[in-house]
Amino acid sequence: DQQVKQNSPSLSVQEGRISILNCDYTNSMFDYFLWYKKYPAEGPTFLISISSIKDKNEDGRFTVFLNKSAKHLSLHIVPSQPGDSAVYFCAVLNFGNEKLTFGTGTRLTIIP
Amino acid sequence: NAGVMQNPRHLVRRRGQEARLRCSPMKGHSHVYWYRQLPEEGLKFMVYLQKENIIDESGMPKERFSAEFPKEGPSILRIQQVVRGDSAAYFCASSPNLDGPFGSRAFFGQGTRLTVV
């Protein structure tokens, strides 16, 4: 029972262009949506989040979009930089239930 | 302010031995979470603890696995009689006692890579 899906295991983007990472979820009752970045042999690092009452949140080069009707979440990175090469995980959470449910991740490679 | 500290970073155990993984949360954080990442998979929640209390252990295997977060000292994830399938990266996270969902403010450690041979 996979509640959070990242259907693209990998993505390559030219430096300076926009990277778009996608995530689909099954439960319309989720309250909070997050993106994490992970380098090899390190723990996940929080990037950006959005609550279910919003449809967009922006922080510098990172923007998260939430489409509740489609149960779809996306992360836009613009412009993409070589240091953005990493595995990106989306995660969901419910208020009162503190556990994060993660997707399987998308490996982003930025081509110089 | 040091981050979430996990040790050891790498742990090799023979089948049947015990594995003890330690996690020191960030200073001032009272919530600790353990996650496991199997090869080629996302992180899976195991257990959520506060000081001296297990709040949610719905992701813990029913046997051989236990966790604690004592009043003093680090949180410990203990795996008894390890099997090859326990080989994974185990991540600890901690969060402060602030408004909003605690789990959304979690900072992760670098993980312990357990290899069972």
Give the gist of this structure.
The complex is a heterodimer of chains A (112) and B (117). Chain A contains no helices and eleven strands. With 112 residues, chain A is mainly beta.
Give a written overview of the molecule.
- The complex is a heterodimer of chains A (112) and B (117).
- By secondary structure, chain A is mainly β.
- Chain A contains no helices and eleven strands.
- In chain A, strand 7 and strand 8 form a beta hairpin.
- The radius of gyration of chain A is 13 Å and the shape is globular.
- The termini of chain A are far apart.
- The mean pLDDT of chain A is 94.
- Chain B is an all-beta fold.
- Chain B is 0% helix and 48% strand.
- In chain B, a hairpin with a 5-residue loop joins strand 4 and strand 5.
- Chain B is globular.
- Chain B starts with a strand and ends with a strand.
- At the A-B interface, strand 4, strand 5, strand 9 and strand 10 of A face strand 4, strand 5, strand 9 and strand 10 of B.
How do the helices and strands line up, and which of them pair or pack?
The complex is a heterodimer of chains A (112) and B (117).
Chain A: E1 4-5, E2 10-14, E3 19-25, E4 32-38, E5 45-51, E6 56-59, E7 62-67, E8 72-77, E9 86-94, E10 97-102, E11 106-111
Parallel strand pairs in A: 2-11
Antiparallel strand pairs in A: 1-3, 3-8, 4-5, 4-9, 6-7, 7-8, 9-10, 9-11
Chain B: E1 5-7, E2 10-13, E3 19-24, E4 31-37, E5 43-50, E6 53-56, E7 65-68, E8 75-79, E9 88-95, E10 107-108, E11 112-116
What would the keywords be for this entry?
heterodimer; A: 112 residues; mainly beta; six-stranded mixed beta sheet; five-stranded antiparallel beta sheet; 0% helix; B: 117 residues; seven-stranded mixed beta sheet; four-stranded antiparallel beta sheet; 11 strands
